[in-house]
Design brief:
Strand content: 25-35%
CATH class of the largest domain: Alpha Beta
Shape: elongated
Radius of gyration: 25 Å
CATH superfamily of the largest domain: Ribosome hibernation promotion factor-like
């Protein structure tokens, strides 16, 4: 693992550098492929900051912590990185288990149906609003899309802010 440690607003310390290096080497078991780690240790007034970025085969893992003690900040950020790496490893393991278990079924389904791209789903509340209220709510949230029930017609409506700043109101016709 290639590790670089940068000190900001504080004197470089070999003890801190060794401590960080030792803690990062423990993560090697979670990572595969070429690995790079960049650690920034800094001091802002009375806060000690530890910022870690790990690049492992294109996967980026980041963590940032602050504390009154530099060693405590390093420990906290390393715990955060450890949790992210464990979660990532579990996802990879679960994904592998599902793909092996579902392989025979998937080949039968592929013959019957064309392969569809993965679709993310999100459940959301659909509030009853007037168009003017929907525009205000959209501006306040800073969103580019708002789904609401039009109070006047009772129909589902979709309000979209286009890249040029204009708005598009979609009112589906159910036939």
């Amino acid at each position: 693992m290639q590790i670089s440690v940068t000190f900001r607003q504080m004197e470089p310390s070999e003890a801190l550098k060794n401590y960080v290096t030792e803690r990062l080497r423990k993560f090697k078991r979670y990572l595969e492929g070429p690995q790079e780690a960049h650690v920034v240790l800094g001091l802002e007034k009375f806060r000690h900051l530890a910022d870690v970025t790990i690049n492992s085969n294109g996967r980026i893992i980041k963590g940032r912590e602050e504390n009154a003690d530099m060693y405590a900040a390093i420990d906290l950020v390393m715990d955060k990185i450890d949790q992210q790496l464990r979660k990532m490893r579990e996802k990879i393991r679960d994904k592998g288990d599902r793909s092996r278990a579902a392989a025979p079924v998937a080949s039968l389904e592929a013959e019957e149906n064309p392969v569809l791209p993965p679709v993310r789903r999100r459940r959301m509340e659909v509030p009853p609003l007037q168009l003017a209220d929907a525009l205000e709510l959209m501006e306040a949230k800073g969103d580019d899309l708002l789904v609401f029930t039009d109070v006047a017609s009772g129909a589902l409506s979709i309000l979209h802010r286009r890249p040029d700043g204009s708005y598009l109101l979609v009112e589906p016709e159910i036939g």
